[in-house]
């Protein structure tokens, strides 16, 4: 079960879910600061019940946290830079030096311990001012503002950061247009025309960032990041097969453009049937030819689909309300199907399609953890369920590598407990490290190693040989 010698083992976090300090050192508001209930926009101002405003106080404790990552043996650490910490409204002439200095320290701390930084440039945290002024990515002007932000990061960190990701789960804009695209138009009122024009703007921005990265950092690798919505037909009925084919294109479209440098042939039918007429300039077409170096993705679960909406049992998850439960899969507390083999399947599907290196940058199990005192007076969490989940998924990664898939690495999501993106609560925990904070924002913020901490440490130390089939 040994992995390639240079396999990048590590973990992943997002600024808006862990940093806190939402109004310190010149930071502006991001769209996350007005999402106290997860996906649902309640108000356009921060409210006291938004746990993301305080996060897990990573802003002040990152050195302690990175030391813990080092103890586990991380080779890579994926984190995001908060756009509004660098450009508070997105339109300043000069960046916020205090924000840049913070990420100087984070990156330097990683490098001190031999950890490669993997930086997500935009992880669901567009400056709120750009949502209010331009309706987010619905407006073409965000392209230049994003590229200016990218230039600032590339010039500052070009000698220190090798791996970059342009947008987190870029295809999620279809499901969550405000969180992913900063589009204030209510989802039920947003036309397909406006939605796909916003998608186009993001794709052009990503391609221009790739071009700029290649110019300024020829030694670096810059990739796209896809939310892997892995879907099986509910039955062998050909209608279900075709339904899955159509749904998969909501995922593939985004990677196809960023890997191949142009819109795929099937997009023409999608646009015609939905009366979508994109404003694509000749310069846009040239920009899109700047393709990514690798494809990264998140994978948590798989689902089923049927052409007949009355067939099958709903998943019960707030993430996949239109999909069906797989009767052969177990289900997590939050209704997410547990399907390790789906990860092998997804890796093979992406690699067969693109022949580009792949990077699993999110995978893990969200669960309710119980902090318990041990005989020696120390505290831990007996999270064997998380160990089982990750062990089984990593075995399937090994199988995919044997299949011939080029996998750069694996960063476990929420390697330290953080505020959930989908529900904005602490109860749903992913980490190897427990953070003493509850859903009401009460707790000491003390860090405790879970049982999975030493398990993952051993997996990394043995380069996967300790995994159990």
From TrEMBL:
Keywords assigned: Glycosidase, Hydrolase
Source organism of the structure: Dielma fastidiosa
Record-linked Gene3D superfamilies: Glycosidases
Family indicated by similarity: Belongs to the glycosyl hydrolase 1 family.
GO biological process, one term: carbohydrate catabolic process
Active site: 362
One cellular-component annotation, GO: cytosol
Protein name: 6-phospho-beta-glucosidase
GO MF assignments: beta-glucosidase activity
């Amino acid at each position: 079960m040994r992995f390639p010698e240079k396999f990048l083992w590590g973990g992943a976090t997002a600024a808006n879910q862990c940093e806190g300090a939402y109004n310190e050192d010149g930071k502006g508001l991001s769209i996350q600061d007005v999402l106290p209930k997860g996906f649902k926009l309640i108000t356009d101002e921060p409210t006291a019940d938004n746990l993301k405003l305080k996060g897990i106080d990573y802003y002040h404790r990152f050195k302690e946290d990175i030391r813990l990552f080092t103890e586990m043996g991380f080779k890579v650490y994926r984190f995001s830079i908060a756009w509004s910490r660098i450009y508070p409204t997105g339109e300043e002439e000069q960046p916020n030096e205090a924000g840049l200095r913070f990420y100087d320290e984070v990156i330097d701390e990683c490098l001190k311990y031999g950890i490669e930084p993997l930086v997500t440039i935009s992880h669901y945290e567009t400056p709120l001012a750009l949502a209010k002024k331009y309706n987010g990515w619905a407006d073409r002007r965000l392209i230049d503002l994003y590229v200016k932000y990218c230039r600032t990061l590339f010039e500052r960190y070009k000698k220190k950061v090798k791996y970059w990701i342009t947008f987190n789960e870029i295809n999620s804009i279809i499901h969550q247009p405000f969180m992913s695209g900063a589009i204030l138009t209510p989802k039920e009122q947003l036309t397909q025309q406006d939605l796909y024009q916003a998608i186009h703007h993001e794709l052009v921005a990503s391609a221009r960032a790739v071009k700029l990265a290649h110019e300024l950092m020829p030694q670096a690798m810059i990739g796209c990041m896809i939310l892997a919505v892995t879907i099986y037909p509910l039955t062998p009925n050909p209608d279900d097969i075709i339904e899955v084919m159509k749904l998969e294109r909501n995922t593939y479209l985004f990677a196809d453009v960023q890997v191949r440098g142009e819109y795929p042939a099937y997009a023409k039918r999608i646009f015609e049937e939905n009366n979508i007429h994109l404003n694509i300039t000749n310069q846009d077409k040239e920009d899109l030819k700047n393709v990514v170096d690798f494809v990264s993705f998140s994978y948590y679960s798989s689902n089923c689909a049927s052409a007949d909406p009355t067939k099958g049992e709903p998943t019960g998850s707030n993430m996949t309300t239109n999909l069906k439960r797989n009767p052969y899969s177990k289900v997590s507390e939050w209704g997410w199907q547990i399907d390790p083999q789906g990860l092998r399947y997804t890796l093979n599907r992406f690699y067969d399609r693109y022949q580009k290196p792949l990077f699993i940058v999110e995978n893990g199990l969200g669960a309710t953890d119980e902090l318990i005192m041990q005989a020696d007076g120390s505290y831990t969490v007996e999270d064997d369920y998380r160990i089982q989940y990750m062990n089984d998924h990593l075995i399937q990664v090994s199988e995919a590598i044997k299949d011939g898939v080029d996998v750069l690495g694996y960063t476990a999501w929420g390697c330290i407990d953080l505020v959930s993106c989908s529900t904005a609560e602490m109860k749903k925990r992913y980490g190897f490290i427990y953070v003493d904070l509850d859903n009401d924002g009460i707790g000491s913020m003390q860090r405790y190693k879970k049982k999975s901490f030493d398990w993952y440490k051993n997996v990394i130390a043995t380069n996967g040989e300790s995994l159990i089939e």
